[in-house]
Design goal:
Elements: E1 2-6, H1 11-22, E2 27-36, H2 52-58, E3 63-68, H3 74-90, E4 94-96, H4 103-115, E5 119-121, H5 129-138, E6 142-148, H6 164-177, E7 188-194, E8 206-213, E9 216-222
Parallel strand pairs: 1-2, 1-4, 2-3, 4-5
Antiparallel strand pairs: 6-7, 6-9, 8-9
Amino acid sequence: MKLALLLSGGKDSVYAGYIAKTKYNHEISCCITIASENKHSYMFHTPSISKTKLQSDSMNLPIIIQETSGKKESELKDLERAIYKAKQKYDIQGIITGAIQSVYQSSRIQKICNKLKLEVFNPLWQTDELTYLNDLIKNNFNVILTGVFAFPLGKTWLGREINSSFIKDIKEMNRKYKISMIGEGGEFETFVLNCPLFKKPLNIRAFVDFSEGENSWRRELSI
């Protein structure tokens, strides 16, 4: 199938695209990014969202960037508008999402796609967290943390790469504090710097860290 990738910049969306292409032989025709003004959006990833254009360029894919205020209802209309554009311009037959556990997100995307007569492909749905993290490493994904939003994670976790050391530490955080090992509860956000889909890696030239309150840190990347 010809599919559009809902691209947030983080590990889940990029890895979902990787599975769709390499395991199921789907064609990724374009990327769709929803750039929300609401940092606390229930639907959309916001850290490093402005850098998805660089990722799509590295994948040699066109991208539709749809801005939204992030209000609960209007952001869904903006998502539908972007998906409709992709259907009209690239003749897509469906959407790839990185949804893993969020029924809120997956059900709303499904409703939009039903309306537009498109398929929804969720290759990571209900995946085992530890298996997923190890698969990222095994498949040469270079993923870093760009936001942390839960105790006891703090500034020192910003920029950490998902590797064996990270897995060891996040397993302990899960055991002690019930933190999702993949950040599915909003505990952390990620950005993909390189993977087999990219023609060339993205290199960080500089970054700025800033706090948004207790146990809430973000890293703004310059690439």
